[in-house]
Amino acid sequence: MGISLYIILSGAIGILLGALLAGFFIKNNSKKLEAEAREKAKSIIREAEINAEGLKKDKILEAKEKYLRLKSDFEDEVGKKKNILITNENKLKQREQILSKEMEQLKRKEAELDSRKENLNAQLHAVQVRKDELDKVTQQRITDLEKVALLTREEAREQLIEMLKDEAATKASSHIKDILDQAKLSATKQAKKIVLDTIQRTATEHAIENCVSVFNIESDDVKGKIIGREGRNIRALEAATGVEIVVDDTPEAIIISGFDPVRREVARLSLHRLVQDGRIHPARIEEVVAKTEKNIDEEIIEIGERTCIDLGIHGLHPELIKMVGRMRFRSSYGQNLLQHSREVAKLCATMAAEMGFNAKLAKRAGLLHDIGKVYPEEAELPHAILGMELAKKHKEHPEVVNAIGAHHDEIEMTSMLSPIVQACDAISGSRPGARREIMDSYIKRLKDLEDLALSFDGVNKCFAMQAGRELRVLVDADNVDDTTAGQLSFEISQKIEKEMQYPGQIKITVIREMRSVNYAK
Predict the structure, then answer these.
(1) Is 208 in contact with 335 (CB distance < 8 Å)?
(2) Alpha-carbon span 144 to 139, nearest angstrom
(3) pLDDT tens figures, 181-202
(4) Closest CA to 434 of 211, 259, 203, 261
């Protein structure tokens, strides 16, 4: 029992010692774990603090960069606006300086003008005083001369006129003698032309154009429609065509007067269409006239083509064909230009064939010899030179070109075709009744009258009427007002008086019409 107790006590003591040892080891391990945990916690805290410090620094840097960028942008914007303000201020200063300089210049000019005005007034006064003195001296000298010569002013003038008459008579006699000598020298040349007349075998009619066309109507009742209410229709027709419509007591006929054959033909065809249609009013008249003018252009081309076919001329340039057709409405000294050119072409072909030259080339040159007279634009060159340039431009034969340019001796003849064309042109124009020089000069005067008025600004159209005694000028209503129209009429009349010679007086009528047109759709 004692042994058992001992064993029990020994076991208990062993257990107690084991427990104590275990507790000791456990305590030591817990302290170590606690220490390790604390170290880890401290390490984590340090890492967290380090990371937080780094993140804080990054954020601060980012914030600083953003701040600096915004600050830079703001400063740039402020700088730009500041530069703009400085530039505007500089411009304003420059403008102020310029304005001040201009004001100073204006003041100086005003002062100079005032000074010049005073000087001019002083000079005018001095001139007037000098003029009065000269008048007195001149009158005194005239009086002295009359006393010395024992003649009055009128008597001296009469003696001077008699002396000039004698001198003029002497010079006129000498001039007449020179003319007679020149006529004798040219008699041989004229005789050769008469001989060439016998060569021709072509007989054509003498076509003399006048300035009047007659439009026949079926009944005199139509005249009232053509005149219109208060004459508005006939005025519209005259304004659109540039001719004068004469409605008189001639039964069943209306007279169309105008120096331009194209205008007369346009007016005649327009009247024909209006009378057939029955609707005659200003708007319809303008529409019909516009269509007729277009048809006339087509007819001109057709006339040119038909002429070339009749004469057997091929390969002519379309522009030359059109100009040949335009000859139908052009006259030369009263002789129809197309009829004259056709006649010259036939004469040239006959004469060239008799002499053994190229008849077709001669016929071509004869037809085109006066082509320069129908050139659509005004040119300062002679018609022969102008026609030569046109033929050269459209690649005509060199002999044809030379014949056109040399038929009035403006250039030297280089082929035998040229004298043939010149001779045939003289034959066609020299036959009795073929030409009237008075008519050509009369038409030229009317054309010059229209061209003079067209040279003024704002003038759209111009028509010479009443045989040149009236000039109707149509102006642009947008550029010429009523006051300017009156001034324009006066200026045209003054220029006509200075630059032209004419019998009697010329009435200048400036017509200004304002139209407002709208369409209801």
Answers:
(1) yes
(2) 9
(3) 666 566 556 545 543 553 445 5
(4) 203
- The span from the CA of 343 to the CA of 182, in Å, is 31
The gap from C-alpha 238 to its chain's centroid, in whole angstroms, comes to 26
Question: Token pair of 251, please?
Answer: 């039964």
Ramachandran quadrant class, 466 (left: phi over 0; alpha: psi -120 to 50; beta: rest): left
φ and ψ at residue 333, rounded to 5 degrees: 55, 40
Cα distances (angstroms) measured from residue 359 to each of 313, 339, 356: 11, 19, 8
For helices 337-355 and 359-368, what crossing angle results, to 10°? Answer: 160
Q: Token pair for residue 433?
A: 């009744």
Of residues 318, 315, 395, the one with CA closest to residue 363? 315
In eight-state DSSP terms, residue 254 is E
Measure the CA–CA gap between 387 and 407, rounded to whole angstroms.
11
The alpha helices in 318-375, defined as continuous H runs, are 318-326, 337-355, 359-368
Three-class SS of residue 465? strand
Query: Helices marked H in 431-475 — which ranges?
Result: 437-454
> How much is the pLDDT for 180?
59
- Over the stretch 483-511, which tens digit does the pLDDT of each residue have? 888 888 888 888 888 888 776 678 888 88
Residue 280 main-chain phi, psi, to 5 deg: -125, 105
* Element spanning 101, H or E: helix 2-149
**Residue 421, burial from CB neighbour count under 10 angstroms (0-12, 13-18, 19+):** buried
Characterize the bridge pairing of strands 459-465 and 335-336: unpaired
Taking the CA of residue 96 as centre, how many other CA atoms within 13 Å lie in the half-sphere pointing to its CB?
Answer: 6
List phi, psi (to 5°) of 161. Answer: -65, -40
Spatial CB neighbours of 354, under 8 Å, sequence gap ≥ 6: 199
Q: What are 282's two structure tokens?
A: 């200003």
Check if the beta carbon of residue 500 is closer than 8 Å to that of residue 464.
no
Q: Measuring CA to CA, which residue among 455, 452, 438, 441 is closest to residue 500?
A: 452
Strand-by-strand arrangement of the 507-512 sheet: 459-465, 470-475, 507-512
φ, ψ of residue 509 to 5 degrees: the values are -115, 115
**What average pLDDT does the chain have?**
78
Q: What is the DSSP string of 113-147?
A: HHHHHHHHHHHHHHHHHHHHHHHHHHHHHHHHHHH
Question: 98: which 2 tokens?
Answer: 């310029």
Looking at residues 65-88, what average pLDDT do you find? 87
Q: Tell me which range, 177-186, 279-288, 328-337, is most confidently predicted by mean pLDDT.
A: 279-288
The side-by-side arrangement of strands in the sheet containing 253-257 is 212-216, 253-257, 244-246
Token pair belonging to 354 = 């008799």
Considering the entire predicted model, what is its pTM? 0.44
Question: DSSP E strands: which ranges in 419-502?
Answer: 459-465, 470-475
Question: Angle of helix 437-454 relative to helix 482-499, nearest 10 degrees?
Answer: 140
What is the Cα gyration radius of the chain? 55
